[in-house]
Amino acid sequence: MTVFVLGSINLDAVARVDDLPRPGETVAGTSLELFLGGKGANQAVAAARMGAATRLMGAVGGDDSGKSLKASLAGYGVQVADVLELSGVPTGQAHVWVANNAENMIVVTAGANALVTPQQVGSTPLEGQRVLLCQLETPATAIETLFRTGAAKGALRVLNAAPALPQGAALFPLTDILILNQTELASYAKLDREPVRLEDVSLAARKLMSRPDQTIIVTLGSAGVAAVRRDEAFLVEGKKVKAVDTVGAGDCFCGSLAAALASSMDLRDAVELANGAAALSVQKAGAAPSMPSRREVEAFLET
Ligand code: RIB
What we know:
single chain, alpha/beta, UDP-N-acetylmuramoyl-L-alanine:D-glutamate ligase, 9 helices, 14 strands, 26% strand, binds alpha-D-ribofuranose
């Protein structure tokens, strides 16, 4: 059961505030902590914590942050031989504000993440990789190369098209499983409002399908997760938990789902497992550090 993640690695500087600032407003932070983050790194950690042999491809800067983030990833069991250290370039950073009600705002400066190339991807053998997992914090050209090469090797291609970017849609035809949240779905499907009911989510998701064998999964926050295929749509309800920090919850879902699918779990069971993992992750601070182990998720789902 192997998961190959191509994605971003960031140093997350997380300031907690009582309420998020409005434009032009200055507010006092109550704490500031540094965490391993970045959608690629978070998803790789989630997959590894769920028991999958996980490789991460990406890039950090040749600075202290880059070295320490790589070491942290390795500490979580993620294979980092394909993470380049690029001298003279800063490691990616995310400035994250989390309010008491768990809402957040994030600004990302890509740094080395923007310098991942199709050549870096093309030089890596993909034999034995069952699931390829990407997000949109690394260049779309590199993702395209990975998905085209991976298709020839029979790998399952999973795209978390986050954040929503115009160039993301061009990758949909190369994708087997597309994962979006409601805001991203509304953006790609060009809707005025975020769909809420399963029927509306399903209608919008079907607008994005370019092949009959594709699956689109839409995370609905506390309402749960919808999965839409050509002939069926189902909802897995959200778990009622007290959220302290939702940063990385979507990443937890994606990485956990990839790990479950790599172990040949059926789609509905995989969605249920990943939904449980995400519910656990929001109860802890930090993105990568909040990813639960498989044992924790299974125990949670039994209660
Ligand atoms: O999805 C959450 C992640 O988005 C954070 O860890 C931050 O680094 C940004 O990339």
